[in-house]
Design goal:
- The chain has 13 helices and no strands.
- By secondary structure, the protein is mainly alpha-helical.
- It folds into 2 domains: 14-107, no CATH class; 133-214, no CATH class.
- Helix 10 (146-157) packs parallel to helix 12 (181-195).
Length: 214
């Protein structure tokens, strides 16, 4: 009886008040499945993450919060940030949400870099600043993230960023491998727009499989 009561009391405590090791031990023994890293990436790629959280009837809110706020796992920081940005299962809190996205970006999350860039591109939650969007997108594109490369070329085509980087951005996207035809066609359209802003010699160099500095 004592052990049962003790379990109920502990379960009712906020995960955020636990030490990091205690939170990890708790999450490792959860009966409810938490999303894997692979699932999260897929959900982020197809923009289904908030629908999924709602579809799971908000049962994983505490686990998501703990992984984001205590364990500071970048993909969970992304998910928790978006829940806060849009008030999904929790009261909306965009200042905290954007701060968490920045934290994830500082840890090297390409997904977070692209999301912040999208907000600066559109002027949602923040003052529109497409040059800053380029700054967030460049390192993600350099790491090989395809959504970042697509967004970078889009920004270059819109006239943002430095023309000195056009060859590199064009090269990355032109030589990328696409898993679906729709994404490839989108890339082709964006490359054509950027191509119009580049000298023919620069386009020729950018199309090389292995880019050599001049």
């Amino acid at each position: 009886m004592f052990r049962f009561v003790f379990f109920i009391i502990v379960s009712s405590l906020s995960l955020a008040s636990y030490a990091k090791t205690d939170v990890k031990a708790y999450l490792d023994t959860r009966a409810v499945d938490i999303y894997s890293q692979e699932q999260l990436i897929d959900m982020i790629r197809d923009k289904s993450y908030l629908t999924r959280v709602r579809g799971d009837e908000c049962q994983l809110v505490q686990d998501i919060e703990a992984r984001a706020e205590v364990l500071k796992q970048p993909l969970y920081q992304y998910l928790w940030a978006e829940m806060l940005n849009y008030g999904i299962c929790v009261p909306a809190n965009p200042p905290r949400g954007i701060s968490l996205l920045r934290d994830a970006a500082e840890q090297g999350s390409a997904e977070a870099m692209v999301r912040i860039a999208e907000y600066y591109h559109d002027g949602k939650f923040v003052i529109q600043d497409k040059q800053r969007a380029v700054q967030y997108t460049l390192p993600a594109a350099a790491s090989g993230d395809q959504p970042a490369r697509i967004m970078l070329v889009r920004l270059f085509g819109e006239g943002y960023g430095s023309p000195r980087d056009y060859v590199l951005g064009y090269h990355w996207l032109y030589n990328d491998v696409f898993s679906d035809e729709a994404t490839k066609q989108e890339a082709i359209k964006l490359l054509k727009v950027l191509e119009a802003k580049m000298p023919p010699s620069a386009v020729t160099r950018a199309k090389q499989e292995h880019l050599r500095s001049q």
